[in-house]
Specification:
Strand 3 and strand 4 form a beta hairpin. By secondary structure, this protein is mainly alpha-helical. The strands form two sheets. The chain has a two-stranded antiparallel ribbon. Helix 2 runs antiparallel to helix 3, helix 2 packs across helix 9 and helix 4 runs parallel beside helix 6. It contains ten helices and four strands, in the order αββααααββααααα.
Length: 395
């Protein structure tokens, strides 16, 4: 994509150009030309919408970090979540929690700051390093999330449809998770190469920068950009969801046939089948949440690249809320575990009870220290500078 127009990367990097649309300028390849606010096609976000969005975004960051820390602690302290009997599914969910926590810690604050100020911190010229890393990190986290869910679904698929086959060992599961993150990183690597900072001159605003993609001159650059867009949509959204849907359909058929075959008879595997169904329900909710929260971003992205989205006056506002949906998905996952999974629910309760005990001990210690200090200073010491105290001493 050329430097003369705002650029959009796939899915999670679309935010880099929405702010460019807000700060849109008419520029030459060498000399930027200042523009006025009247020449902008984008309509600024209403102040109430801005306030509500910022407050909710900050709340989501707090809940995201707290919830995903609970997930990591639950997997670390509960052996059942890491057992072969449960297909090590706690490790896959821990990988997903790390990706979600990275979104809350690194992506959300920088994206919000860039949206509202037009530049990145921690560097000169709008911080080129952050411009390259944050969009790439967003794509890495997105890829790790959907690939972890896909791998976990296939693990459960093998356990239900082919129960007699050998399950993966812990070493192979760790290797699979490593490949998940490696493939997600490779998919996001072009963002580090093509993203760069472009300074813009806007009347009444100093030091405005846009983080844009530079794929080269058209038509080759346009073909590369659109090809990368299509690749990310297929590889990190459409194809995983198709694989997951086929796997769930097959698992549902197998479980229904087993229920019909065992109808009217007691079976020692009833608890196992119930656990299968509960876990499948959890995965379905997680994947539906992922699909719905990421869908607006993909739709807007294709509308921008293949349609007339850049000419729509409310396009930037819609993109901001599409990113809000992505952050919401990262926040929801740990609380869905607690609501739908018994192991996580018990682990959460233990962690909260432990925190309550620590808080109770801290309160008791504080009260004890307060009582001791009040006893020490409850009797006033006579002062030689106080005439009343002198009279009392003489009497």
């Amino acid at each position: 994509m050329t430097s003369a127009s705002p650029s959009l990367s796939a899915t999670s990097t679309m935010w880099t150009n929405s702010i460019t649309a807000v700060l849109s300028t008419t520029m030459d390849e060498k000399t930027p030309i200042p523009t006025t606010a009247a020449s902008r096609r984008e309509i600024p976000e209403p102040f109430p919408s801005l306030v509500v969005r910022l407050i909710l975004s900050v709340l989501i960051v707090i809940l995201n970090i707290a919830g995903n820390i609970l997930v990591c602690l639950a997997v670390r302290r509960n052996r059942k979540l890491r057992s072969l009997r449960n297909y090590y599914y706690g490790l896959f969910l821990m990988s997903l929690a790390i990706a979600d926590m990275a979104v809350g810690l690194f992506c959300t604050p920088f994206i919000l700051l860039y949206y509202e100020t037009g530049k990145y911190p921690f560097g000169f010229f709008g911080s080129t390093a952050v411009c390259k890393l944050i969009p790439a990190l967003s794509l890495v986290c997105q890829g790790a999330s959907i690939y972890s869910l896909t791998s976990l679904t296939l693990q459960r698929f093998m356990g239900i449809v082919y129960p007699m086959k050998a399950r993966l060992t812990l070493k192979k599961v760790k290797l699979l998770l490593l490949l998940v993150w490696l493939f997600a990183f490779v998919s996001a690597l072009p963002q580090i190469i093509v993203n760069d900072v472009q300074k813009q001159e806007v009347l009444g605003e100093d030091n405005k920068f846009s983080c844009e993609e530079f794929w080269g001159d058209p038509p080759a650059g346009t073909i590369l950009r659109e090809g990368y867009t299509l690749y990310l949509f297929v590889a990190e959204y459409f194809l995983p969801l198709v694989i997951i849907g086929i796997a769930y359909g097959k698992m549902a058929i197998v479980l229904n046939r087993r229920d019909e075959g065992l109808q009217g008879r007691k079976s020692t595997s009833d608890r196992t089948k119930a656990n299968h169904k509960k876990f499948i329900r959890l995965l379905i909710v997680l994947i539906v949440s992922f699909a719905l929260c990421y869908l607006p971003n993909h739709v807007l992205f294709f509308w921008y690249d293949y349609g007339t989205g850049e000419n729509y006056p409310y396009f930037t506002i819609m993109m901001k809320y599409s990113h809000f949906c992505i952050w919401l998905n990262s926040c929801l996952n740990p609380y869905l575990y607690g609501a739908l999974d018994d192991y996580f629910r018990q682990s959460y309760k233990k962690a909260l009870r432990r925190c309550a005990r620590i808080e109770g001990k801290a309160r008791k210690t504080h009260a004890r220290i307060t009582r001791q200090l009040s006893k020490m200073y409850s009797f006033r010491t006579p002062s030689s500078a106080d005439p009343d105290s002198t009279d009392i001493e003489e009497n």
